[in-house]
C-alpha cells in the first residue's frame, strides 16, 4: 500500500517533470546570453536581456515542440511575476510619489484614448468591434493578460477565438519590437532617465518587455518603467468592467468578467514598503542587506530566463500570416498610445 505522502508527491513530481524541459531550455538560453554579452560588447553595447530575447526567437522552431510548452509558459507567466515582485526591493515608495499626479493623468488619458481608437479602427476597416476592444485593451493595459481578461466580456462573434489568439501573439511581437526601438527614440527626443522610464512603462504592452527595455537602459529607468507599468496593471479590472458595460449598453449581452487579481503587483508594493522602512530601522540592516542582495540577484536571473522563454515562444511567421487589417488595427492603437504619451511628456512641466 502506497504511503499517503508518496501519493501526494507523485502528481507534484509529474508536474515538475512536465515543466523541466522548457525551464531548462530557457535557462540554457539565458546562460548563453550572459556568455555572449561580453563578446557582443566588443561590437555594440547590447544588453544580455536583448541577446536572450534574440537567441530565443532564433530557436522558436525547435522550441515549438510540445515537450517545451509547459515549462516555457510557466517561465513567462509565473517566474516573470515572481521576479517582478522581487523588484520591489529596489524601489522606495517615495519613488512612486515622485512621479506625481501629472504622470498618472497622462497614463489615464492615453489609455482611454487608446481603447477608443481600437474600436474606431476596427469599425473603419470593417472588422468586428470585439477585435477592436481586444486590441485596444492589449495595447492600453498589459498585453496578453488584458486580452484574455477582455475576451471574457466581449460578446461571441465568428472570429473571436482567432482574434484572441492573434492579439496575444501580436502583443508579444509588437512589445518585443518596441522594446528595442523605444529607448533610442527616447534618446533622440532628449528625455532624461525618469521621462524615459515613464514613456517605456506607459507605452509598451507586456510587462516582460517593459522590464527588459527599462533595465537594459539603466536601473533608474527600469525602476520608473516598472512603477508606471504596474499602475496600468492595477487599472485592468476597471478597464475590463468598463468594456463589459459598454457592450451591455450596445448589444445587451456580455460575458462575465473573470479578472485575476494582480497578486504580484501587491507583493511588489509590499516589498517597496519594506525597502522604504528599512533605513529607519538601522538595527535590522545587517540582516536585511544580504537577503536583499540574494533576492535581487534571483530577480535578475528570473527576468533573464523569462525573457528567454518569451523569445522562444515568439513566432514571426504566425504574425505575418494574419490579414493586414488586423495588423493595421494593432499598429494603429500602438501608434496612438505612443503619440499621446510622447506629446504629453513633451508638454508636461
From TrEMBL:
Q: What is the name listed in the Swiss-Prot or TrEMBL entry for this protein?
A: Putative sulfate exporter family transporter
Q: Which family does it belong to?
A: Belongs to the UPF0324 family.
Annotated coiled-coil segments of the chain:
none
Q: Which Pfam families match?
A: Cons_hypoth698 (PF03601)
Gene Ontology CC, one term: plasma membrane
Q: Where are the transmembrane segments?
A: 19-36, 42-59, 103-122, 134-158, 164-185, 197-218, 230-248, 260-281, 301-320, 327-348
Which organism does this record belong to? Salinarimonas soli
Q: Which UniProt key words apply to this protein? A: Cell membrane, Membrane, Transmembrane, Transmembrane helix
How is this protein situated with respect to the membrane? Multi-pass membrane protein
Location comes to: Cell membrane
Amino acid at each position: 500500500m502506497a504511503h499517503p505522502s508518496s501519493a501526494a508527491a507523485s502528481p507534484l513530481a509529474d508536474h515538475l517533470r512536465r515543466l523541466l524541459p522548457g525551464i531548462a531550455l530557457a535557462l540554457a538560453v539565458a546562460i548563453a546570453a550572459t556568455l555572449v554579452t561580453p563578446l557582443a560588447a566588443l561590437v555594440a553595447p547590447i544588453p544580455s536581456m536583448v541577446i536572450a530575447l534574440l537567441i530565443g526567437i532564433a530557436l522558436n522552431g525547435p522550441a515549438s515542440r510540445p515537450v517545451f510548452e509547459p515549462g516555457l509558459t510557466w517561465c513567462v507567466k509565473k517566474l516573470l511575476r515572481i521576479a517582478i515582485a522581487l523588484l520591489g526591493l529596489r524601489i522606495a515608495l517615495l519613488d512612486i510619489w515622485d512621479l506625481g499626479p501629472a504622470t498618472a493623468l497622462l497614463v489615464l488619458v492615453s489609455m482611454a484614448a487608446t481603447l477608443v481608437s481600437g474600436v474606431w479602427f476596427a469599425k473603419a476597416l470593417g472588422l468586428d468591434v470585439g477585435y477592436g476592444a481586444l486590441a485596444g485593451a492589449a495595447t492600453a493595459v498589459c498585453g496578453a493578460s488584458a486580452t484574455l481578461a477582455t475576451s471574457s466580456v466581449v460578446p461571441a462573434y465568428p472570429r473571436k477565438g482567432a482574434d484572441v489568439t492573434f492579439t496575444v501573439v501580436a502583443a508579444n511581437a509588437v512589445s518585443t519590437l518596441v522594446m528595442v526601438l523605444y529607448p533610442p527614440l527616447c534618446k533622440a527626443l532628449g528625455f532624461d532617465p525618469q521621462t524615459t522610464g515613464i514613456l517605456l512603462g506607459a507605452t509598451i504592452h507586456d510587462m516582460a518587455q517593459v522590464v527588459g527595455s527599462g533595465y537594459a537602459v539603466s536601473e533608474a529607468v527600469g525602476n520608473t518603467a516598472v512603477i508606471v507599468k504596474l499602475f496600468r496593471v492595477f487599472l485592468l479590472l476597471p478597464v475590463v468592467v468598463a468594456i463589459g458595460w459598454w457592450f451591455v449598453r450596445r448589444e445587451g449581452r456580455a460575458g462575465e468578467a473573470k479578472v485575476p487579481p494582480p497578486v504580484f503587483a501587491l507583493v511588489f508594493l509590499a516589498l517597496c514598503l519594506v525597502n522604504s522602512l528599512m533605513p529607519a530601522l538601522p538595527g535590522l540592516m545587517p540582516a536585511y542587506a544580504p537577503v536583499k542582495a540574494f533576492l535581487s540577484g534571483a530577480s535578475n536571473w528570473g527576468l533573464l530566463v523569462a525573457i528567454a522563454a518569451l523569445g522562444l515562444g515568439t513566432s514571426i511567421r504566425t504574425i505575418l500570416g494574419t490579414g493586414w487589417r488586423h495588423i493595421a488595427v494593432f499598429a494603429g492603437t500602438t501608434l496612438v498610445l505612443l503619440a499621446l504619451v510622447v506629446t504629453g511628456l513633451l508638454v508636461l512641466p
